[in-house]
Amino acid sequence: MARARIEVPFHDVDAMNVCWHGHYLKYFEIGRVALLRAFDYDYQAMQASGYLWPVVDVQLKYLKPARYGQLIEVRAELLEFENRLKIGYEIADCASGERLTKGQTIQVAVEAATQELQFVAPAVVFEKLERVWTGRDSCAG
């Protein structure tokens, strides 16, 4: 799991100081990047490995609105990785911990050179995750 904190900026809200619904996907993206970096497979690493990972499905459920100036936390968790990257998200108010939004995205691997969809995640995903699980990517060694 990875976490990212965001203060809802003025340019993300409407005249009622409520965050516009489309910006929640941007907040999911911020959480997703934090999660991908946690196992050293962010978008630059994906591209370098020869795979593209388009988002093919998004689900969102709005529970309460985020408002201008509110400090929120985006939590992203890798739910599946064998055949696709399925990431779950929660957006919560930092002060109260109250959940504001939840959802998920699904990304699939496409080989960059051939544009062919991969039905099993590339080996690089398993290698990156194994390093994190076994502690081989730690600062200690």
Structure description:
The protein has 141 residues and is an alpha+beta fold. The protein has 3 helices and 7 strands, in the order βααββββββα. The longest helix is centred in the first third of the chain and has 16 residues, at 23-38. Strand 4 (71-80) and strand 5 form a beta hairpin. Helix content is 25%, strand content 33%.
Task: Write a short abstract of this structure.
The chain is an alpha+beta fold.
Major β-sheet profile = 5 strands, antiparallel
Averaged pLDDT: 94
Strand content: 25-35%
Instruction: Give the strand order of the largest sheet, numbering strands 1, 2, ... along the chain.
Output: 1-4-5-6-3
Strand segment count: 7
**Class of secondary structure makeup:** alpha+beta
Throw out a few tags for this protein.
single chain; 141 residues; alpha+beta; two-stranded antiparallel ribbon; 3 helices; 7 strands; elongated
Question: How are the SSEs ordered, and which strands pair?
Answer:
Elements: E1 2-7, H1 23-38, H2 43-49, E2 51-52, E3 55-62, E4 71-80, E5 85-93, E6 99-107, E7 110-111, H3 123-134
Antiparallel strand pairs: 1-4, 2-7, 3-6, 4-5, 5-6
